[in-house]
Specification:
With 417 residues, the protein is α/β, with parallel strands linked by helices. The protein is built from 14 helices and 20 strands. Strand 4 (122-124) and strand 5 form a beta hairpin. The radius of gyration is 22 Å and the shape is globular. The structure holds aspartic acid and magnesium ion. Aspartic acid binds next to helix 6.
């Protein structure tokens, strides 16, 4: 198995000389291309960007719930579908969107071509279902752009170094878009979605949550890792590593959304905290009887996405997404660990780049939780994040109370341009 730990610099990427100002990558998520009317609207938006003088690369997701339906279909055939065949199956959703959008663009009088990930030159490692991009060979895209053609690339997929079709993991079209933006030296990568941008908390839980005008890469990484679903975590890593400016915005309006960029002074001074995120889909494992090095090597080999890790003298505690539970359990049994899982915990995280220079955020977080009578089970921190695993049933009110305590309903205004 040729897995790699990180997404490398696209080898023939950064072809900036060939990319004049005005190369843009525009990615549209599943709800943005949910039906034929919406696809036609996306086609119009792409044409408008072309007519404004841009070289336009679009990355589309599968229509609506297509990917879920295809996965479901596979499971109705087989209890554990063959990984290669599953990738062959689920990669078609994105091809459908791209082919249809290309037809609509041609009807609007413009040139368009749809490409699979493979045709677009997206080369990955060989891990089915969670492949990582190792290279972007953008020659074909460049020559199409040189002819004024709008290029539609099927998101979420590539071709492996062994010439198999691979997929990049759920939400992977974001990663396709960022990799292409890095590979062709685009000015920006626009992520069009069904929300207006990145919010200070999930507006379904906190009605007073506000859209942030800008967040740093590091903040966005922490937010994506701790439950904000608007961007796939790996796409943010890739954007940071290649300095790709991201603009998360609504498909259904022309309003500015949230810019994800390098930190600037203004962002730091104005707000300590930029958001409260949460997840209900994480399992916390307690493990004894195996050395950490062995444990985490085995988990990595099985592509389990380990998040929080806490080690005390005899016990190792770590968390991983619920979706990885089957793999994690197999690994833990396989290496003969004594282990237990907590399936009743969620995680609340307070994130903000300004935390680095302002003491007292942890104290305030614990105070707010204790006033609610909530005792965190596991606490983990980074320079810009405090995360607490607490009972799932307490997550909503913890998010609400923290949002209020840190006065996040005013932060977005302060951070505005
Ligand atoms: N269609 C894929 C998914 O549902 C990839 C994506 O939309 O980004 O996960
Ligand atoms: Mg997504």
């Amino acid at each position: 198995m040729a897995a790699i730990d990180f997404e490398s610099v696209p080898a023939v990427g950064r072809d900036t000389e060939r990319a004049p100002v005005g190369t843009v990558v525009m990615k549209f998520g599943g709800t943005s291309v949910g039906d034929t009317e919406k696809l036609k609207a996306v086609a119009q938006r792409l044409v408008a960007a072309r007519e404004a003088g841009n070289r336009v690369v679009a990355v589309l997701s599968a229509m609506g719930h297509t990917t879920d339906e295809l996965i479901d279909l596979a499971h109705r055939i087989s209890p554990s579908p063959d990984p290669r065949e599953l990738d062959m199956l689920i990669s078609v959703g994105e091809r459908i969107s791209c082919a249809l959008a290309a037809m609509a663009i041609k009807d609007l009088g413009h040139e368009a071509i749809s490409l699979t990930g493979s045709q677009a030159g997206i080369v990955t490692d060989t891990v089915h279902g969670k492949a990582k991009i190792v290279e972007v060979r953008a020659k074909r895209i460049h020559s199409a752009l040189d002819h004024g053609t709008i290029v539609l690339v099927a998101g979420f997929q590539g071709v492996s170094t062994e010439l198999e079709v691979t997929t990049l993991g759920r939400g992977g079209s974001d990663t396709t878009a960022v990799a292409l933006a890095a590979g062709i030296g685009a000015d920006a990568c626009e992520i069009y979605t069904d929300v207006e941008g990145v919010f200070t908390a999930d507006p379904r839980i906190v009605p007073a949550a506000r859209k942030l005008a800008a967040v740093t890469y590091d903040e966005m990484l922490e937010m994506a890792a701790s439950g904000a679903k608007v961007l796939m975590l790996r796409s943010v890593e890739l954007a940071r590593n290649h300095n790709v400016k991201l603009h998360v915005r609504s498909t259904f309006s022309t309003e500015e959304g949230t810019w994800v960029t390098e930190e600037d002074e203004r962002m730091l001074e104005k707000a300590m905290i930029s958001g409260v995120t949460h997840t209900l889909e994480e399992t916390v494992y307690r493990v004894e009887g195996v050395p950490a090095a062995r444990l985490f090597a085995a988990l990595a080999e099985a592509s389990v996405n380990v998040d929080t890790i806490v080690q005390t003298s005899s016990e190792i505690v770590f968390s991983a997404p619920d979706a990885d539970h089957e793999d994690a359990a197999r690994v833990l049994d396989g290496i003969g660990a004594q282990w237990s899982g907590r399936y009743d915990l969620g995680k609340v995280s307070v994130v903000g780049a300004g935390m680095k220079s302002h003491p007292g955020i942890a104290a305030k977080t614990f105070l707010v939780l204790s006033e609610l009578g909530i005792e965190p089970d596991v606490v983990s921190t980074s320079p810009i994040k405090i995360a607490c695993h607490i009972p799932r049933g307490d997550v909503e009110r913890a998010v609400q109370a923290l949002h209020e305590a840190f006065e996040l309903d005013t932060v977005a205004l302060e951070r505005g341009q």
